[in-house]
Design a protein that fits this description.
The chain has 257 residues and is of the alpha/beta class. It has one domain: Glycoside hydrolase/deacetylase (TIM Barrel, Alpha-Beta Barrel), CATH 3.20.20.370. It has eight helices and ten strands. Helix 2 links the parallel strand 2 and strand 3. The chain is globular.
Length: 257
């Protein structure tokens, strides 16, 4: 079995430092790079792409609402044309930077509230999918397993990769437990590893209640802003390798070749 480990990186802001990014980029297979709207800027994008290239890590755009004051985690109701433009602009910004460094952007993964809203709202999911296709039909749509974005991606016959979250707990409907709740996060790296290995082996989401929801798993996300992000990524990589799983950059998975 092949699996990808991805991480949200380049998220320099008043909420988050990028000091762990170089260490994480030696562990993960794919990087979702902040495009300047919720965090990061041109310099952090360039730096993240350069280090990713050095480590053979594939690059993805991580578009969000233009809301740095809330790190892109506040739900905003915006007109369709505004959302379309912010998705396209962020992908193009990172693509232009990457091209100058002789690297291709190979996937797109929405960030924060935009991602959570599109997991639940099929119309928003379709809007994001169509916006990505406008830029490049070859881009992989990296989306939470079982979400409305997975349905939208399949409807438009996109290249889709479904992910699970190593350091987050799930509600019984398959959505992530809100960060406002005490049981949202999994801070212990060893518990996160067990959480991931169980989901991968069973091909199912582990809900906090104990319920399991069958799903396909292509990728595992470790949040780069987690307090124990580096240790969590190490534990998960070790656990997957010891389970006989082959780790690859997203665009190198057999389903995309």
């Amino acid at each position: 079995m092949e699996i990808n480990i991805n991480c949200d990186l380049g998220e320099s802001s008043k909420f988050h430092s990028t000091e762990n990014d170089p260490s994480l980029l030696k562990i993960v297979n794919s990087a979702n790079v902040a495009c300047g709207y919720h965090a990061g800027d041109r310099l952090t994008m360039e730096k993240t792409v350069k280090i990713s290239k050095e480590n053979s890590v594939s690059i993805g755009a991580h578009p969000s609402f233009n809301d740095p004051e809330n790190f892109g985690r506040k739900r905003l109701n915006l007109p369709s044309d505004v959302i379309r433009k912010l998705i396209i602009d962020q992908i193009i910004t990172l693509s232009n930077i990457s091209t100058k460094l002789d690297v291709k952007v190979t996937h797109v993964k929405p960030h924060g509230a935009l991602n959570n809203m599109a997991c639940e709202d099929y119309d928003l999911a379709k809007l994001i999918a169509k916006s990505i296709l406008e830029v490049n039909k070859e881009l992989i749509f990296l989306i939470p397993a079982g979400s409305q974005m997975e349905k939208a991606g399949k409807k438009f016959e996109m290249k889709t990769a479904t992910e699970i979250f190593a350091d987050r707990n799930y509600e019984d409907n398959g959505n992530l437990i809100s960060r406002s709740k005490n049981n949202a996060m999994i801070a212990n790296p060893k518990i996160a590893k067990k959480h991931v290995i169980r989901m991968v082996k069973n091909q199912a989401l582990n809900c906090y209640s104990g319920k399991q929801i069958p799903c396909q798993i292509d990728s595992i996300c470790v949040h780069g802003d987690g307090q124990n992000a580096v240790d969590t990524a190490k534990e998960i990589k070790e656990g997957l390798i010891n389970s006989g799983i082959i780790l690859k950059p997203l665009n190198k998975l057999k389903k995309f070749i």
